[in-house]
Amino acid sequence: MIKKSKSLTALLDKVVNIPVIQITILVILFILVSMFSLSAQTPRRDSGAEGPTPLQVGDTIPESLWSMPLQVINHPDGKTITTLSDYRGSLIILDFWATSCGSCISALPKLTKLQHSFKDIRILPVTANERELITAFLSKSPNLMGDGLPYIVAEKNLQKYFPHLSIPHVVWINAEGKIINIGYGEYVTADNIKLAIEKKLVDLPIKIDFEEDHYDEPLIRQLAKTKDSVQILESSILTGYLPFADLIARFKQDSISNSTRYYAFNHSLNHLFTLALRSSLPLNRKRCVMHVKSPQRFMYGQGELFFQDWLRKYAYSYEIVLPYLASMNDIRQRLRNDLEGALRLKSEVKEMPVQCLVLSYRKDHKKNNRIKSNVTKKERFDTSSFTSMLNNDTDLPLVVDEVNDADLDILLADDWKTVADLNTGLRKYGLELIPASRTMKMFLLEDKSPKSL
Asked: What is the CATH number of the domain that holds 141?
């Protein structure tokens, strides 16, 4: 490996001004002093598209937006049309959502509760879904109806003022009509609402929501900018969190530049190992054996930090450029080598004995007498779904499904506390959970000892 030159180091030190936890640049440069230039840039889309100018943090809501008619359902006064002007003078929170977004739906009860807790705010869920669809959706969720939130529906124009690619997408407008944040749904909390009302809301992350072509320029060029006299034939970069990028991964091959490029920005370390090993095990907490310092930096867990704050502290970003004929297998091998080399780690997928809970048939069960489900297979909570729930949402040991019965629809009470409680509920299905040892593939990650370096 060739170390980067002092001149390149100096250039990067001048250009790069981004806070990162750790930056490790592994660059293999084949420098060609040539007569040609690599200054051609990918043309960007014309910014003069039809429609209103998108609004940003710090902008004031224009009068045309205040008075724009908005279709609404579940309005406290029974209105079918409203305007933002109806809530002028209050803190307004626009929450862009859709019925296809699970995290958006999960947040609605919290938003309803927050609305009831504050008189000086108006939370408005906004969706492009049609009135009939949202009406049907709310009819199945009584806790969201009645004195719940008014829902802006079939809305396309608001999205022109606040364009976005992903949801939830939250816009904060203060009592003076100024946009104070465009961000993430997890930051809509009672404490942040109090700060906003008191005009003290500061330093909330602004949502990164770029078009795809934002990522077309290779990372090495974003860091060094002007490299017209240098042709980089092969390089790899491992760095920390990048504030100018979203959580994204892409594989691209370009016959013109004769290169293969892969990048994965703002990922957890275990997610990067998932990509490198082509295995989902590193993302399964109960299938990981971690002999490392500070294991909380490898995978996000429910704790004191919001997910976006955790990413800013612990996420890593990776980019590799190889010759055009390079395969994804080549990239995976290089990614694994770079992660292990730069971070002094050893990774492997290894079969080993594991103490677990095995879901199996009871000795006294009779298959013909089992409770069978009348719901469709798509809606059924079968043994596979049941064990996935126990593995993902509980602190139980690893649960292994040795029944694999797709015909069952397992319905248990929510107040269980022990394995014995679960087994009581499972009895009617002829099932039980029993402690056992099984040899299973596990993801093993450990710090390299000084002797192995």
From this structure: 3.40.30.10
Which two three-digit tokens encode residue 124?
């408005």
Count of domains forming the chain: 3
Q: What is the DSSP string of 302-354?
A: SSSS-HHHHHHHH-EEEEEEEETT--HHHHHHHHHHHHHHHHTEEEEEEEEEE
Q: CA 95, 100, 106, 111: dihedral to nearest 10 degrees?
A: 20
Helix (H) or strand (E) holding 80: none
Give me the helix-helix angle, 269-277 and 328-343, nearest 10°: 140
Boundary of a domain, candidates 286, 312, 343: 343
Phi-psi region of 228 (alpha: psi -120 to 50; beta: other; left: phi over 0): alpha
Whether the bond between 295 and the residue before it is cis, its omega within 30 degrees of 0, is no
Phi first, then psi, for residue 324 (nearest 5°) are -55, -35
pTM of the complete model: 0.65
Q: Which residues contact 278 (CB under 8 A, 6 or more apart)?
A: 332
Handedness of CA 281, 285, 286, 291 (dihedral sign): positive
Structure tokens at 284: 């399964």
Residue range 279-338, pLDDT digits in tens:
999 999 999 999 999 888 999 986 668 999 999 999 999 999 999 889 999 999 999 999
Residue 257 lies in a domain: yes
346: its two tokens: 């050893």
Q: Which amino acid is at 61?
A: I
